Structures are given as structure tokens and as C-alpha cells.
């Protein structure tokens, strides 16, 4: 790696990496919605608005996933595979550690702008993980893993989703969120 590295506030020098990070952002937002829906499924409610308000008041992703998994220990169901759901939620929790490294790191580039790295100051200064190169392909591998876990979770709560999507509260919610073009 070429030294020195300088903090950066954009990725104009690496469009594929910028695109991959945009995909990561959207993929994680969708994963969070799958968790909100899973929580609604566990609590047997179709009031997604109420669930979202409560879910997003829980301060960290780790706390949110622990909360859902804890509720699942008391959830009595024969319709849903709660062990598989809890396993996927745990996998998402592990994937969030990687995301946090990218989100909370110091992004830097070398003088030639051909190497992008992240400095993670939460790691010991003598650790090789203190400075890590970041490549679009690594981010996209992460995106695909998060997408796959989200789709697995969606499939496991499929019966609840089907029921919810047909419910009156969902239809009313959709109307509230329509753009003027969609309403006409």
C-alpha cells in the first residue's frame, strides 16, 4: 500500500465502490424492514406503524435483534419455524459488525487516489485490522449475504406477510404513503 493516506469525504475516485456502498445502504434498510415485520409476526399484530415506532426507539441494531430473539423464546407457534428465524436474525447481527466497520471507520485514500482504506480506531493501534483496504467486490459480497438472509427471513414469515398484505390496516397504510400520481 502506498503511504500516506488522507481522510476523504467522498468516493468520486471510485464509482464502483460508491455504488456498492449505496446498495449496502438500501439492502440494510430492507433488512431492517424484514426485522420489523418479523417482530410484528412474533407479536401477532398487523399494526406495523406501532411496531416501527417501538423498534426504532431501541438504540442499536444489536439490541433490536436481541430483543426479537428474546421474545421468540416465549413465542408459542407451530406455524412458524422460530429456530430458523432466530438463526437468521443472529446471522444478520454478525453481518452488522462488518457494516459498522464501514460506517464508523475513517475513510482514506492515498495521494494517487487509487487505494481506498478504512481506519478503524476502535481496534488496537498495532492490529493489522486497524487499516483495511476496501473494494467494491467486498462490499457487494456483503450486500449479497445481507440480501440472502433477508429473503430467507421473508420466506419464513411468508404466511404472516400474506395475511398482513391483505389486511385493512395495510391497505390504509398504503393509501397514506401514496404519491399524488399513485392515488389517481
How would you describe this structure in keywords?
alpha+beta; 62% helix; 8 helices; 184 residues
Could you provide a short overview of the structure?
The chain has 184 residues and is α+β, with helices and mostly antiparallel strands. The chain has one domain.
Architecture blueprint of SSEs:
Layout: E1 5-7, H1 15-42, H2 48-55, H3 61-74, H4 82-103, E2 106-110, E3 116-119, E4 131-133, H5 136-156, H6 158-165, H7 168-176, H8 180-183
Antiparallel strand pairs: 1-2, 2-3, 3-4
Helix pairs in contact: 1-2, 1-3, 1-4, 1-5, 3-4, 4-5
Low-confidence stretches: none
Ends distance: 57 Å
Structure summary, number of beta strands: 4
Structural class of the helices, strands and pairings? alpha+beta
Q: Could you describe the 3D structure shown?
A:
The protein is of the alpha+beta class. The protein has one domain. Helices cover 62% and strands 8% of the residues. The chain is built from eight helices and four strands; from the N terminus they run E-H-H-H-H-E-E-E-H-H-H-H. It has helices at residues 15-42, 48-55, 61-74, 82-103, 136-156, 158-165, 168-176, 180-183, and strands spanning 5-7, 106-110, 116-119, 131-133. Helix 1 packs parallel to helix 5 and helix 3 (61-74) runs antiparallel to helix 4 (82-103). The longest helix has 28 residues, at 15-42. The radius of gyration is 20 Å and the shape is elongated. The relative contact order is 0.18.
Amino acid at each position: 500500500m502506498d503511504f500516506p493516506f488522507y481522510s476523504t469525504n467522498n468516493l468520486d475516485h471510485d464509482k464502483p465502490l460508491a455504488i456498492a456502498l449505496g446498495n449496502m445502504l438500501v439492502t440494510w434498510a430492507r433488512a431492517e424492514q424484514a426485522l420489523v415485520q418479523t417482530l410484528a409476526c412474533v407479536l401477532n399484530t398487523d399494526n406495523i406503524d406501532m411496531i416501527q415506532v417501538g423498534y426504532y426507539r431501541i438504540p442499536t441494531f444489536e439490541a433490536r435483534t436481541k430483543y426479537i430473539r428474546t421474545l421468540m423464546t416465549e413465542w408459542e407457534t407451530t406455524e412458524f419455524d422460530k429456530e430458523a428465524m432466530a438463526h437468521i436474525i443472529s446471522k444478520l447481527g454478525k453481518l452488522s459488525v462488518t457494516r459498522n466497520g464501514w460506517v464508523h471507520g475513517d475513510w482514506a485514500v492515498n495521494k494517487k487516489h487509487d487505494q481506498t482504506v478504512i481506519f478503524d480506531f476502535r481496534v488496537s493501534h498495532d492490529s493489522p485490522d486497524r487499516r483495511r483496504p476496501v473494494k467494491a467486490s467486498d462490499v457487494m459480497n456483503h450486500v449479497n449475504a445481507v440480501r440472502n438472509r433477508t429473503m430467507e427471513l421473508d420466506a419464513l414469515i411468508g404466511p404472516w406477510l400474506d395475511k398482513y398484505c391483505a389486511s385493512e390496516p395495510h391497505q390504509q397504510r398504503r393509501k397514506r404513503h401514496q404519491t399524488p400520481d399513485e392515488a389517481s
